[in-house]
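Repro:
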Amino acid sequence: MKKLKVVVSLTTRDNDYQAEQAAAAQEMAGRLNLDLEVLYADNDAILQSQQLLNIIQSNSVPHPDGIIFEPVGGTAMPQVGRACAAAGIGWVVLNREVDYLSDLRRNYKVPIFTVSSDHEEIGRIQGKQIAAMLPNAGSVLLIQGPAENLAAKQRTTGMYETKPVEVHVKVMKGNWTEANACKIVSSWLKLSTSQQSGIDIIAAQNDAMAMGARKAFQEIADTAQREQWLAIPHLGIDGATKTGQAWVQRGLISATIVVPTNSGIAIDMLAHALQTGNLPPEKTLTSPRSYPAIEDLAKKAVRRNQAASSGF
């Protein structure tokens, strides 16, 4: 049996979840004895499209058996997917709901499917975290992913489903990176309205942006203002072991949401389909979880409120 080759295209190197995606892909490829090539698109949808088209259209090197990719832009590149399937290459989309896959699956016999985090459920968990920490009323600064990104939209939708009605949300757009979040929060802090905002929680749609907000607060010159902003609970998403979970343990952020990597799962499913001819379901979802548990967050919130009311 010939050795399978798989290409995995990820959005950026500058994100802890994407780093874990790469590590999970490499681990699974090693376990299955596959040839693996990992590409990074530097958060550029055009670059990602060009990288994949160059592979699909190449006449100088053999085609891979499958391409697994996490889309940068708002679409999951239907034209590239069609070209891939037409070339006899498996096409797997990560972390995105894709409406064109059904059509491709009807017309081509190669493995075509998606493996995704349940982004609306991720948002619902973040809304429950907010509810545990602000059970009555308050104000949240939400640092959202890119406006055109479906995962960001779904996480926001889910959060609004479960947050308390009395909790108000101010939204700013980020691009998933710590540096960008630091920049946009720093710019916002220069506005006079930020000082009257009464923010009770910083909720970011990934851990990197939560830490970017924290970095912006650390750069405030006024000591009292700096400490006031840094004391506000920060929430993140991704929950990588060495970053998000470690930051919770160190008290740098209050909570995260553990989002299982799915690149390894996708490689396993793709290899099995290629070797057996049994096609996987069109869509597979992974299950996220709060870290720490919602109940523990609620208990911490009660203790924090009691300490504040007693003057300690």
